[in-house]
């Protein structure tokens, strides 16, 4: 037998035999649903034989035959009725298990989110992406062929999505472009560190989405349910279908707060905060101002995360505030890092260590936050040091700044666009999908090994725009992304270590050392972060003005 569990209550399998029945009973199954019509193959027992053997061991059996490749709406209804009436756990089977998995997917589509359905069936060995449109349609057979068609469809209206739309319009104004995003508000997320440090007001980091999407670009205010890259289609919630000639995928990533037990329940109270959320960053500053003594924890989960320096930025700005108000001597700062180094590019570590020492912060590597007891003010970490058996340690705190675990969005992870890790699979230079030639990706959701920062998206957007325009003209890619990312590390109020680097940790400074040496803390870098970068973001990057972001041209060898 080849039993493939989809949920705790439903398992599917290829054809079972009469002799399997005792083992099926011993595995705990209370009922069997047969989805294979009698006489489909010479090697299969009849349902009557299966039913007789099942009854002999106390298992109920139901017959819901489905013709191969033709799952009708009434078949789904019949399967749902049988599933609701029999005792569970239940085993459904057909020749390979695919029909049974498909029936379950359609039956569950009314009450279960599509990403959950696709993930559950994928884990059982069945890819339901080919019927995603029907799942989105509540399990019923869709009758549409596409509700709209665009030259370019962009999924996600964050920093990457709006920038690439503007860059495309700047190159070819007549393009018919649509941006898909359900959000009403667009956030300047790099500013949230400054909000948590008492420098920016939260309101200054938010603008309405409608005010930022470029003129003549269609805004489809909806969530994406699935992709049909073979049909050049994006399926929206409610089974609306948007067709495209070329697709850009940049929905950002998912902050997985639920991955830490007890975290969601205590965020914003009990001294637990995070600059990774717009509504919590002001709470960070409130906690910093009110803390006069005790222990402050700053956590960092396993990579990848967006803005890998953000967890320690919060620590430095908090330490600086306590240094200024005289409270630092009474505060025990602990940096709990799931990784093994302070910062991934070694050139910047000496300057950062000076501030670790200044604030008397303790660095705890290989410590990954797994649970929080907010009312008790206790945090538990899994400690997994190299060549040492994993252990757990519980630490009390008075204040804790949490950086949550992060993954690709659910609808990306279970899509045909994803690699084994769940990220959109692209060529790291051209940002074109490795399998689908008319799909590109940028920003946090793709798998190029660069830092996930807004500065990276600023460089990626022109590269994608250039290469799409070249593709429209029938040419090969013309531009390459070098992995550039920037992380302005706010080590104290008024000074920043400006980390700029590309693939492999190669330094990529934007300024000559005599103007700004990024490996040392400087006021010039602070001026850049506080005063220049916000208007560059709002007025240049999101409007297609590619200041200091011109794409690197691919050099073509002479014939």
Automatic annotation (TrEMBL):
Cofactor: FAD
All residue ranges annotated as the Beta-lactamase hydrolase-like protein phosphatase-like domain in the record: 2-107
Entry keywords, A to Z: FAD, Flavoprotein, Oxidoreductase, Quinone, Transit peptide
Gene Ontology terms describing biological process: sulfide oxidation, using sulfide:quinone oxidoreductase
Gene Ontology molecular function terms on file: FAD binding; hydrolase activity; quinone binding; sulfide:quinone oxidoreductase activity
InterPro entries tied to this protein: BLH_phosphatase-like, FAD/NAD-bd_sf, FAD/NAD-binding_dom, Prot-tyrosine_phosphatase-like, Sulphide_quinone_reductase
Superkingdom, natural source: Bacteria
Domain named FAD/NAD(P)-binding: residues: 150-270
Bilayer-spanning residue ranges: none
Name of the protein described by the UniProt record: Uncharacterized protein
